[in-house]
Amino acid sequence: MTSLEIIEQNERKIVVKLKNVPLQYANALRRICLTGVPVFAIDDVVIIENSSVLADEGVAHRLAMTPIKTDLTRFVEASNCDCHSEVGCSRCRVMLMIDAGSADTTRTVTSAELTSEDEVVKPVSDKIPIIELAPNQKLKLEAYARLGRGTEHAKWNSATVSVLTETGNPEDHILTIETTGALTPAQIVSAGIEELAKRLDSFKQVISTLG
User: Fold this and answer.
1) Cα 84-88-93 angle, rounded to 5 deg
2) How far is CA 153 from the centre of its chain?
3) Of 126, 138, 128, 150, nearest to 40 (Cα)?
4) What is the Cα–Cα distance from 112 to 124, expressed in whole angstroms?
5) Is 16 helix (H, G, I), strand (E, B) or coil?
6) 97 three-class SS
7) Which distant-in-sequence residues (6+ apart) come within 8 Å of 53 by Cβ?
8) Quick one: 83 and 102 in the same domain?
9) Where are the alpha helices (DSSP H) in 22-167?
């Protein structure tokens, strides 16, 4: 009988034993947990003012690679949203802002100053450095985050580590997941299993049409 046993779990990592699971399915789950589970990432940045030495594109890239906490219960991927809008709506995008005014000394702007319109969808840490501003330099911008998958870009990877190791039994495997912080490790595994089931079901439907 197929089953899953949690061996180790904390806020950053989960280790599970997949029992009586063929290798191809276990490896598919591993890959989905890494790049197939949707998470939020900043995808569009509107620079209002940037007098720093870092180009606008550099600022946008640093924001894009900042892990964002994700809520999959209230939001949908843009491709599945009823708004059908390039701009997005409250169901498929979240706006974040930075308004870092000038100071008399050099200072580092961190993710603590990246404020979100949503209480959940925000940086996983307030200590991530974004840019250094010299005296009298400013940075003001609007950033828009949306759900995506790592298969499209690494900024949407839900895990930093997704490793499968063997046991003495060829039908048992150890899956280790370390999260970026966007989702809990358990949420990644659960969403990965759901996604794998959907893909298998879609594949079965395609096969049935060929008969």
Assistant:
1) 135
2) 10
3) 150
4) 10
5) strand
6) strand
7) 134, 137
8) yes
9) 23-35, 56-64
Token readout for 17 is: 């034993």
Count, residues in the chain: 211
Are the CB atoms for 157 and 147 separated by under 8 Å? no
Inter-residue contact 75 to 92 (CB < 8 Å): yes
Distance from C-alpha of 93 to C-alpha of 134, rounded to nearest angstrom: 32
Q: Are residues 105 and 186 in the same domain?
A: no
Name the β-bridge partners of 44: 144
Domains: count for the chain = 2
**Model confidence pLDDT, tens digit, residues 196-207:** 999 999 888 888
Place of tokens 């003495």: 168
Strand segments, DSSP code E, in 51-197 are 93-100, 107-110, 115-116, 129-133, 139-148, 159-166, 173-179
- For tokens 């900043």, the residue is 42
The reported pLDDT for the residue numbered 85 is 87
Here the CATH number for the domain that contains residue 162 is 3.30.1360.10
Alpha carbon 186 to chain centroid, angstroms: 14
Predicted confidence band of residue 193 (pLDDT cuts 50, 70, 90): very high
| Whole-structure pTM value | 0.92
Mark whether 20 and 45 lie in a shared domain.
no
**Where would I find the H helices in 15-156?**
23-35, 56-64
For residue 84, the enclosing domain spans 39-150
